[in-house]
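LOG
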Amino acid sequence: MKDPNNTRNTAPRRGSPLWIYIVVVIALGVVAGGSAFAGLTGPDLDALLGNPVFWILGCFIVFGEMRPIITPGSTENNGATTSTTFAFAALLYAGLPVAAALQAVAVVTCGIFRGRTPHRIAFNVAQYTLSLGAAQLALALTGDLATPSALWVPDGSDLPAIALAGTVYFICNDTLVSAAVALHERVSLLKAMRFDFGYQVLVHLALLGLAPMMVVAMDRSAAFVPLIVLPFIAVYLNASVSVRREHQALHDALTGLPNRKLLIVRTEEALAEARGEDAHRHLRGRRRKTAEPPRRAGLFLLDLDRFKEVNDTLGHPTGDRLLQLVAHRLTHSVRPGDLVARLGGDEFAVLLPTVRDEDAAREVAARLRAALSEPVRLDGLSFDLEASVGIALFPDHAPDFELLLQRADVAMYNAKESRAGVEVYSPQKDRNSPARLTMLGDLRRAVDRSELELFYQPKVSLRDGQLVGMEALLRWRHPEQGLLEPEAFLSVAEQTYLMRSITHHVVEAALAQTAAWWREDLAVQVAVNASGRDLLDTGLTETIEEGLLARGLPAAALQLEITERILMNEPAYASDTVAALAELGIPLSLDDFGTGYSSLVRLKRLPVEEIKIDASFVRRLTESSDDAVIVRSIVDLVRTLGLRSVAEGVEDPKTASALREMGCDAAQGWHFGRPMDADTATEWLRRHMNRAPEPAA
């Protein structure tokens, strides 16, 4: 359960406050340890080497240092160690030199085994030596000082002195560690101590409270010592299982990074602290008659560009290793105290609990992109990585986690769309309003509650009336507003990460219904609409391919409708996804044709089989000569390109007849059939699939 965000092994910059603090603590530890060992006599050393209890204690201290009691929500490197009991028992029984020496051996052994840096090992040795020395001074106040040749076994009257020594040990040890953490993560000492203070008090109370009993057992016989260790083993194993489950619930299994749940917790903590600090700053500002800038927190959303190409080319195992490498690079590119999380797929989030301003946030984002851009070599191949980063700041852009994430997602979408790499959230580029944000929250819950469903509308041949296909149309059965059409809610989702979930839901539902129809010998092609956000999702092709294979459907069973505007506004990204879909064999339809500005050259290059004429022209076809000319021109152009033309919005027989005379291939609209739910559409198909063709009028 190694924490990728733990960067305490990184050596501090020479001359920095943390470096100075570590040097001072180590120096004091050397002085304290040297003074203690200088007091050892020859008889003390003989007694020490000849007593098996000390050798057994040494083994247990090493084992206890290697297997800490893990703090919930933390890592195995941060918990209180069971060696505390044995080291404190050694202090009571034989004095400071023995306890400090055994603890130092354990810390060095554990540090080497875990690959800790020399500065961290030296600091830990000094930290324990100073804490044990402080406890020794507390015992000296009562005159209860032991040596290896003059062992001390406490009785009931000595418990107050032991309690004082244990309290001093805990306060000294916790303060020394918390000060280092505070300097490393650039937070206040109070915050560092407060993080798990209650838990540490409880754990140390139990660990230090067992030390006197350990002393009594050691004095009776060395054979009793292993018996006392058995309860430790039972507690440790139970705690390990519990902590491992908690760790799995809050961390990503592949990268070990925090997941969305833990990101929410840490973000809420950072925002709460920022609000509290802002309140104090405001009060100080009123007293000083000066305005102090608010404390900011930042949330980044980061998405890898063209990650799917790696999966497709080198396979998923290599893709997984690449994600692990990305996680490593990100965690070693942020500042101490920042948090990197994986939200799923190739999407990561970075929390900056404190950030000076927008420029500072951009600097961090640029550092992340620079770290990722270093060439990667896997399976004998070398390739480059790029990422798009969206930034949202508290309180500038949002007051809570959900809104921060949503607005970081909007910024990331803009960064990917503009290919700028990094974008800070801008209200001018966000179409969301408070009402739309409320709907976004409702829509997120609608996906989880399966309130989204598909309706189906037929596309019919104008030549013989035979069915050409069914278009799947998304509807939201809102618990309060009733049945909503896509225009009422999809524009809210298209700028957010939620669009990906909706599209995957639509694809899965459409494929499931198509498979059900094909099993009834109703072999109909079903068309699904794709948004611009969908075509920026490199996993769309993979989702469709896996869905077809799982249901035994050919690629021709599903058609994807893409709008002309998408290909004009986002040609670079869209063309890659469109090409991948075409290579898979998915038939493509160009929707809303006539509303964009497609050039003939681009239209000729698009791998589409069908052009759908926008309903705005079709509805006025029999009333406006200009619209009639436009529709006829489109029909002639499509026929020249060897494609099928489909007219949308046909609501009366007069319009259908005019389209037929123009040579339009197929039509869709209320004249042929309104959108129907799955059951109604199934009955409609049973009535119309096998009927005789209608004669052309």
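LOG (cont.) second protein
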Amino acid sequence: MTEVRRTGAVPASLWERDEEVATITRAVDILCADRSSPGTLLEARGEAGVGKTALLAETRRIAEARGCTVWSARGGETLRSVPFNVVRQLLQPALVSMLPEEARDYLGDWYDIAGPALGIADPGERQADPQNVCDGLVAAVRRLARREWPLVLMIDDAHWADQETLRWLAALAERLDETSVLVVIARRPGDVSGDSARHLEAASAMGRPLAPLNALTPDATAGLTRATLGPHADAAFCREVWAVTGGNPYETVELLAKVQDSELQPVEAEAAELRSLNRSARGSGLVARLEQLGVDATRFAWAAAILGGGITVDMVAALATLDRADAARCAELLRGARILSVPDTAGQPGADELEFVHPLIATAVYNSIPGALRTAMHGIAAQLVTDSGLGAAAASRHLLKVYPDDDQEVVAQLREAAREHLAVGAPDAARRCLERALQEPPLPESHALVLFELGCATLLTAPSTTIGHLRTALAMPGLDGEQRVDAVFRLSQALLHNDQLEEAVRTVEAEAARTPDPSARLRLQAAQYMWEGIHAGETSSPRRSARLAELAATCTGRDNAERALLILRGFDAMTHGESAEEVVELCDRALVNGRLAPGLGWTDTEWGLELPMMLASSYAYADRLDRAEALFTEALRSYESAGWSGGHLALAHAYVGLGHRRRGRLRDAEQSLRASLRIAERVGRGLPLYWSATCNLVDTLLARGHVEEARTVADQYGFAPPYPSTIVLPDPRTVRGRLLLATGRTKEGVNELEAAEKAAAARGRHNPVVVPWATELARALAAEDPARAARLATDARRQAERFGTDTAIGEALRCAAALETGQRAVRLAAQAVTYLEASPCQYEHAAARVEYGIAARSAAELNRGMALADSCGADGLVARAREALAVVRAG
């Protein structure tokens, strides 16, 4: 325990807080010492009334004395449903103080993304990506920290902060090494659950806890009592103060204030009165004291508790139905009674606001309002907020508290609030509004529409919940025509995200069978083939490829349904190893003037990202890397400019990396794939996008010759069975088989490649470039079972010639050469070089050139191969060529 303070100059709640204050002082000094100093997060944790708020006030005093800019915010128990409430309190005042043009210039590309969440810009028309909004808010802090250095951010009652703020806080804490700012938060243990708890704990884990805030000792309580009441307070009276309050600093200060008000003498004979005085400061005693101030003051306090934040005399007067003069008088009474106070908002807008002296008082007042009256007051507050022009989203927190009453205006307001929440990147807030709208309930003709909107709001955050909502909506009247098709398509997407791919296929197939509209039926059939096309399971529907080919043969690309079928047919033909020329011709027909058609773009939601990914992948493996890379780059640019920084951006980076890998730019590929994995880590492990990034990174590291690093990545990110239900390019079983062989686990590697063979055969995927198990297995079996190895190599060459690309044929010839010796090996290696020289895949060309140089013992070929391998970043291939060159020169 720190030394007991004995001076009356010390603020009451800072007794026995020397260690905590010293830590804060050091943190402020470090911040002020250097603009490039890393940021710090300090956390004060303790029970209610233990002095957290006082410690933050001392932080402000210390920081401002050293010339720091200090911004503060506070969570509220009744405001947790308001998205971005706390982060807006922190950052909005500084941004509002700028001219609009200055704020836009200052935030740059992040203005349209973070601005709506901060309430300084109008939201766009489409749903905002929550992850990118979070990233935008972190970027805003980084820029403001440079502008306002040294900057201190303080959050009181962080356990009551809204979920969106806590997500931002966790992201900021993770990146404080690059942001010179001091963040100090105060929170209670517990009092938070679900995703909010996860985000808050993540932030806490990145910070440094202050010493635990414990109750005052008897000696400290005695010192505080004498500092307040005078040195004549006797020991027995001081001991009773400690016994009554348990050493809680807030309760101690309030009790001593009551002693002063009552003119009680601090002597043992009066100590028995302390318990009744203490009861009047909290709970039912506080309510009784409030009632003694009169009916008007009580109504004023109730209205303030209902509002929770933004408490002004005018707003409370309107809610409590008081005239302005009476409301002002009540405010003064409540301030005199230490129930309300003026917040410390020096230098910030809203300095005329009121707040409760302590959250414990706010909670007690709110709970004292009779239930029916409290509900009615929330309804009135919702109307006042709406009439004030603050919008449906601002009113929605009150509407959530109103009893359902078959009020269609409430349904309409909640639906509008949900749209506003989605537009600023708060899907959970939208979900709460729509779930409440269903309880009203909506009229039968709009009930299904509300369920559909709810399903769209929860699609990415809770796919299993979405499935139930959309199935219920589809079973009700009200969804017809395009809306019904959209709902079925969204349901199939939710099933896909919930790893129920076969059910997704059955859902669109059944709806297509009962849909009379040919256009709608074609779209549903395309969705069916799309989900079947990305399914990595062991079975495929009978004659699927044949039916898809029949449908695509009639398509001219006149609308998006036909273009989708052409893309699906091209992707199917590519994975099955059919003619690459036909694959490219099908894909070209799906474009409009060489570009993605409107409605099939990367950010269009009608079809999703799967179709353009299939299109670009088909080009990539058909040796049309120019078109594939243009599409992958367009995806990255589209998601970044649209503000999508979650799973979509992770996939875009992964496929840009795939393009670099196919081209042979291995260093660039590794950089893109690591960026993809960083984003995928935030989205969540186990998803198909996570597999795409990990599989491609392992493949790239193996190509570079960085085997140990590839093994580390595989171990770190769980690159092992079971594999996802959706297709991953390149084939993860084959890549893992290569990894096992490269690390000396030959038997396991062979088993994995044989599993890849079985899976590919079951799905008819015979493209030797996409699933190159045969060439890898042939090399692995060359010494142990040369006859089988030769058969595998022959079959791989046959499949490669059927597909017809230079890369496929060249790779098959490389494998055949590796199984031969003498002049036959030289001739096959030379043929491999000829094909791969014409291929866009430079790493494979480099490998073929080095292998030809080894077979022919040609220093010139080894030098050419080594130079090409070096330009690709294939360090292992360079080392192999250098060793072979030394042997040739020595021989």
